[in-house]
Amino acid sequence: MLINCVLYDDGRVVAEPGLAGVSEALARQSGFVWIALKDPDDAELALLQCELNLPPLAVEDARKGHQRPKLEEYGDLLFAAMHLVEPAQDGEPGELQVGEVHVFVGARFVVSVRHRSTQGFLGVRDRAQREPHLLRMGPGFVFYALMDAVVDRYFPLMDAVEAELEQLEETMFQKGRDRQAVVQQLFALKQRLAVLRHAVSPLREVAGKLHGGRVPQVCRAMEEYFRDVDDHLVRLQGSIEAARETIIAATQVNLTLVTIDESLVTKRLAAWAAIFAASTALAGIWGMNFEGMPELKWAYGYPMALGAIATVSGLLFWRFRRLGWL
């Protein structure tokens, strides 16, 4: 589905030619065209390939989707794939869904192809049109603006993970806390971090190719801007790694707490077992019914036996209580 097809010249909108008239508009007019598509069908991609002479392999990647973040060069044309990470619409709270945006960058055109994502880039286009002095830099600026918008959307998701992790750490040591629920929550956080990590880490490689060293001609004027994007990705990657280490440590602490709880239960059961074992032993002695037992004919034998059992049990209870077993 076509979202926008706008021809810009000197940072201003001059025409909206539509897909079928892109090549003709570029032949008549200077400037560049910015095309945005969402979940396009094969006919739209074939028309776009014909109008802009796009590489077949790159078009095939854009058609199939499910690409890792990457940057490929086809002569003077760039093809970039980036992950769009956003909260799932119909999933569990905190669950993330992953879409993609594929960007074709040529000397006189930029094409963004969005898949499986509800968040568009109209805000990016509005921002670019409010800054015509930057839009005059051509397709390289648009590519930067799209990448910057993608990276900026990762930060709120990372902040949410960190906030949930901090809250979990604060309540982890509360008595009566369900340890199994804590482990499940930690595992869910780890899965969300994995989604962000798979989006951020490869994208750092992409940003690294766009500043310093051999930079593609179309992006050469925007090196400083892509360096800023790379700095954001470095911050994100550092936050992801720190959160992963915190989750690993929290999981180990939680498992340690489970072991401690089990040890306390074992001690408590062992203490009660010892008390009842002593009572059982005393009761067994007086229950043997030998004729020669002196207590059998004694009028106070029964109260004495009960008193002895109660005394021994009380002493054991007091001792175990002092040891912290009860």
TrEMBL record:
Protein's organism: Pelomonas baiyunensis
Record-annotated membrane-spanning stretches: 269-288, 300-318
Alphabetical keyword list: Cell membrane, Membrane, Transmembrane, Transmembrane helix, Transport
Protein name (record): Magnesium and cobalt transport protein CorA
Family note: Belongs to the CorA metal ion transporter (MIT) (TC 1.A.35) family.
One Pfam family it belongs to: CorA
InterPro entries in the record: CorA_cytoplasmic_dom (IPR045861), CorA_TM1_TM2 (IPR045863), MgTranspt_CorA/ZnTranspt_ZntB (IPR002523)
Localization in the cell: Cell membrane
Main location: membrane
Membrane topology, record value: Multi-pass membrane protein
